[in-house]
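[AMINO ACID CHAIN]
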Amino acid sequence: MSKRVLTSGNEALAEGAIRAGCDCYFGYPITPQNELITYMAVHMPRLKRVFVQAESEVAAINMVYGAAAAGKRAMTSSSSPGISLKQEGISYLAGAELPALIVNVQRAGPGLGSIEPSQSDYWQATRGGGHGGYRVIVLAPYNAQEMHDQPALAFDLADKYRIPVMILSDGQIGQMMEPVVLREESPCPPPKPWALTGAKDRPHNIVRSYLPRAGLLEVHNKRLHAKYAQIEKNEVRAEASDLDDAKIMVVAYGTSARLAGGAIVQARKQGIAAGMLRPITLWPFPTAPIQSCLDRVKAVLVVELSAGQMVEDVRLAVTGKVPVHFFGRVGGGVPSIADVHEKIREVATSL
C-alpha cells in the first residue's frame, strides 16, 4: 500500500532522490533549498550512502563529477547564485558525458537578489549555462508530488543518455507543504561499462572532456549534438488541459502554471475559452505540442516569474502564426490568480 505524507517540496524531492537510488549527495547550504540538503544530511548516512557538505559550490559539483565517473548516481542541489558557481563543473560533466542530477530551487536575482521565488534562471538552464555550447535535460516540477517523482525520471534519463539532468524548481514549490504519495524504490540502475571502476578484468576506461588533438573535439561535439537531436525527438514532455476548444492558450510552468490554472478556471466561468500547455521538459522544449494547437487557438499568453525568458522559445514555436502575449513579475514578486485572470481577460478582448 502506498504511503501518503505531508511534506515540503524540497523534502519530497530529497526522499524521491533517495528512493531513485541516489548513491552520493554533495552540496552547500543556500536558501531556499536548505530543507533538501538537511534531509539528505539526516537520511543518506543512515542508509550508509555518501553525504558531503562541501566547502563550496565549486567543490560540490566536482565531487559529483568524481562520483559520476565511478558509475554512481550522484546529485547536488543549490539555488540560483550557487548554480552559477557550479557552471564550469556542469560543462565538464556534459563534455565528459557523465550522468548526474542537479537541482536548482530558484530565487530572485540577479546577484544575491533575495530568497523569494523566481523563474529567472530559465535561460541559464535551457542554454546549458556554462561554456562550450552543450545542453542538459531540464525538468520543471509543478507541485510537491512531481518534486518527489522527477528525480527517478531524471536519473533514468541521465543514465540513458549519459547527460546531466537539471530539475528547475523555485522557492515557492520548494517551501510549500502538500500531500505526497511516496513512490516505490527504483530497481537497480543499468550497468555502466564505461565507468571508472577498476580495470583488473577489462580494458581501462578514460573519462575526460579535454581533447587537444586536432579534429578530435569537433568529432566529439558532432556526436554530442547528434545525441541532443535524439533527446529532442524522444523526450519532450508536456501536459495539456482545456485546450480542445480553447481560443487562448496559456503556456506556463512551475509556480506560474499553478497560478494560471486557477485563472483559467475563473476565465471559463465567464465564458472565455482558455486552456493551458504546461511544459514538463523545458529542454527539450515542447515546440510540437504548442504548434499542434495553432490551427484553433487565436492567441497565446506566456506567464512567468521573470521579465520574459521562456516567452522567447514560445515565440519561436509559434512562428508568428498567432499573437504571443506575456505576463510576468520580477524580483521575487508573485502575482495572484486574479492578476493572471485579468491578463487573460485583456487578451480575450483583443481577439
